Amino acid sequence: MKSIRKYAYPFVSVLAVLGLLFLAVPQAMAQQDNDNNDADDNFNPPPCDFNNQFYADNGIDVTQLIGRFGDNGGRTRLTGPPARGNQHNFVVDNTCTTNDPTRNNIRILATTGGNADDGNSPFTCASTDPLSMPHSLNCASQSAVEPETFEFISLIAFLNSQGPFAQGPYLRNVGFINGGLQGVQQNHGTDISIGETLNVDGQTIVEAPGQTLRGFAMQDIVSNFEAYASIRQKTPHGFALNPCSLAMIQNMQDPTATTVPQPCFSVSDKTVNGLLISDVATPNLRQDWRFATNRNAMDGSDGNDPFGTPPSSKPFGYFCDDLLGMWIITYFWFTTPPNDPRCSSILGPIGAANGLTTDGTPIILTAFELNDRLEANNCGAEAQEAVDGSDGGAAFLICPALPDPRAGAITSDAFLDQVFNANGSPNNPILTVNFLSLQNFGKFPNELTSTQLSQLHSIASSHGVPF
Amino acid sequence: MPSPKGKRVSRRDFIKVAAGAAAAGPFFIFTPDAFASSKTLKIAKWAHFLPEFDDWFVNVVAAEWGKQNNTQVTVDLIPVEEVRERAFAEVAARKGHDIFIFPWPPAEYHEHVIDHTGVYKTVAFKYGTVQQLAHRSTFNSKTKKYFAFSDFWMPSPLHFFQDYWAEVGMPLGPVHYGSLLSGGRKIRDKLGIPCGLAFSPTLEGNVTLHTVFYSHRAYMLDAPGNVLFNKNAFAFKTLEYIQALCRDAGTPDQLTWGSGGSVQAMVGHKASSAINAISLLRTAEKQNQDVARRLWLQPPLLGVSGMGVTALPHVTNCSVVWNFTKNQVGASKFLADMVDGSRKGYEKSLGCNFPIYPKTVPDIIVRLNKDPLAYPPSKYTALKDALHWTPNLGVPGYATPAYMEIFTTSLVPKMVARVITGEQSAEEAAKSGAAEMQRIVDKWNQ
What we know:
Number of helices of chain B: 20
Radius of gyration of chain B: 21 Å
Oligomer: heterodimer
Largest sheet of chain A: 9 strands, mixed
Number of domains of chain A: 2
CATH architecture of the largest domain in chain B: 3-Layer(aba) Sandwich
Radius of gyration of chain A: 24 Å
């Protein structure tokens, strides 16, 4: 996709100009907004959780979600990762439902940053010219604070199995109106039912479980959107070359394995001091998230055309179909230690270009780097957790990306959830700079005026991330 | 076999003979009213998995076209496993049928067929330009010639028994290859039911295995047509995966099933999952509704290494007009006119034949949502986006002669068998398989 962000602003601008011309009111020109970051510049709502009915409409049984923000009377995951110290992950905010009736009143403060690797990234040029690893010359002129690669998401809840997709028969009324048009309009609405139960040999079987109101199985939609989690491989017992899950090892790393080699890195949740810590909580990660959204552009700018030459199409659009912003988690890891000579020629150039993770391994930013360099050369592997929940960690996420993180979507009380190095510095300081720019000015750095950019330099320096 | 010329064939007679043809391999010939005509059109067609489709094709499509075009049309139904050799026999003899209809892209015969561009152009007037799946399945990028004409295809979703998978905590199916292995193992351990993916040298075995390799990024050939197999770690790792799947979750029968063996195992409720055309589920619906209710569809498994949700087509229906036939004009016209029947063909195939031209079945999504034979009626909704997750045989390139020879000679099932039986290690089999592929590519490059 060509970035929504990239096109939305000119599009809105053109509409605004056309509107002014149509009105042809001279005073309006005199009163035009001078980009002063006031209320009318903050037209993007901040992220909030969905309400239970919207989950059900999309085939999710909320009672089976794990670690959903605000469960248990507002106590679940109020503090603890992603929040640090005394931070809260969310606040109660009744404007959420006003802005969007599909939301509840839990506004998410923890804003998890990551990198999109699906063609919406400046690093994509690497894959168009694989021989010029890691980046082709086309990328050389890109700004160091180029925003297009970044995604900001809200880690609302986890699914450790496909259980929450198996919502049973669902019946709801739509279109009910009582008193519209000054009390005149009445409509009983229509009952919509999904699924039914039948008895087969004494067994009760739910037909079509987990379907959305639009007739898709939610699991089928979500399986198209992969979020890449990178669990730390440095353990107290040494560098772990595999997860602590035989099934995940057998998936691709070593199908002949019969035991889990040690040391291994954990892929199951933990409870620490009464707090649930997901296996993919940010402190457990060696680098920030990567996302393959495969999404269709709302404005058609991706040229999505299944009949074209070459075809350009994905089965579902993230923002069009994955209405809960869900992901299937693909774990990826290195199968050799950082300095192992067998893979040094593969890992070295990637690390030189992208920097290093908290483990000292290269940061992986693109699908090309993971698939065509690491995995193709047996230097890396990937797998998903078993969907029966037997691995004990997150298999799926409810973690919607902000459609447009500008113009008010990142509020002043939000905080960036990102991976930190051992010395406390962010592993990806450019991500921090972009977040601060969005939070303070509602824009990406490359959209700022020179004055604003100067201010951003000061703000970033005060956060310990000069650029 | 001598043809019973001049004899009108009743529907009952037809079904008898067609069933015999499918089982034993003799071909069947139909003679329409236009027998007295001097013009003839002889068609060889692979025997459809659902005989009712062939019944309609022979008795309605061919017969009515013959009447309208004053032509005597004969149709011979050929079992899938005999298609390749029969076609080569006709090429060698430079005589036989006017039209030969394959269940896969017949790229190997590109030197012996007409350029079908004209057929596509004729159809384009009514139904629009050819879509990608057909284009990449029937276009030779070197000669710039369409070596075949494609009018329908069949997706390859995952079929799984909800009751078996619910027993191991996966009531909605395995989702990805990791869970196929881990869940399949648990099902076999707990219930004694193996997974039912076909690995044998059959059409279903080839489609299944080519899908598994492609989903694991183990390309046979790259886009320009060079051998890519075993030039990275994907090939032998995929072989190891398949070996583990058969050893830990499968059955030795997977290697020896004949054509339709996987279907029989599934319809008998004796396997937990399979990659197949929906003719599998349709067969279950006809034979045992109780089994059919437990049998569910899912889009293909999520592949590894960025491959996403994808599966190769079970069938790409491709017709050729031989360049040695005398009735090239009539044969080309038949192919173009055949598309007019796509909507009926979709119905007669019980929804198995997805149209290449979407305009011919514009309400296909509605039909998938409310299938009259399925329980529940929405069961086939999983196929809504089938065109998006189905690339052509030959992907990431076109269906080239070399790729299709790899496919039709069952090189991949044979390679897999060597690993599963212990004859070779995964590394050895990947190496020898790549060498065989290189030999085929070299032959076609000469």
